[in-house]
Amino acid sequence: MLAPGPARGYRPAVRPPAPKGGAVDAVAGPEEVTLRVVRLRAGVVLPSYAHPDDAGLDLAAATDVTLLPGQRVAVPTGLALAIPRGWVGLVHPRSGMALHHGVTVVNAPGTIDAGYRGEVKVLLVNLADAPAEIARGDRVAQLLLQPVGRAVIVESDALEATSRGSGGFGSSGTGPPADDS
């Protein structure tokens, strides 16, 4: 079993429930953004920050799940979110789950677009040799809210040259950086 019981920790980001739809407002970081959250199932854990300076809100499982070795599962959170326009929700793994249980987010980071209103599910994979038990309320991922820009596509015949050029996939090597002095 992962972390026992419901997610606990620093929670001042959660304000009292809004009057309609059981929604809750959360504030993320120094730039305030309202995250409307609806519980789709009774008793599911709301996203929360474990510590005052954390970047990510913890997301918890809404049901008990057993992940067999190598298995991938979409773990429900029992939550729907209204991510503001111009922002994106990025679902990242929790390092302790990866280190201690071999469980991580398959498509890290998972992307939750501002227009999505369905149930948030976390795509987990068990990379360990033993089954991993996840209990309802266990924190399984973290959600980062970030502003995003919209690209204006301009087709060109050529691109300006850069020092990197077309080098990719390890082209800069793996050793320490060169000494420029």
Structural overview:
It is a single chain. This protein is mainly beta. The chain is 4% helix and 31% strand. The protein has a five-stranded antiparallel β-sheet. The longest helix is centred in the middle third of the chain and has 7 residues, at 95-101. It is globular.
The order of strands across the largest sheet is: 1-2-5-9-7
Strand content: 25-35%
Supply Rg: 20 Å
Main beta-sheet strand count, sense and barrel state: 5 strands, antiparallel
Shape: globular
Q: Would you tell me the overall average pLDDT?
A: 86
The H-and-E topology, N to C, reads as: EEEEEEHEEEEE
- Gap from first CA to last CA: 52 Å
- The number of E-state strands comes to 11
Approximate helicity band:
under 10%
* Stretches with pLDDT under 50, minimum 5 residues: 3-14
Number of helices: 1
SSE class: mainly beta
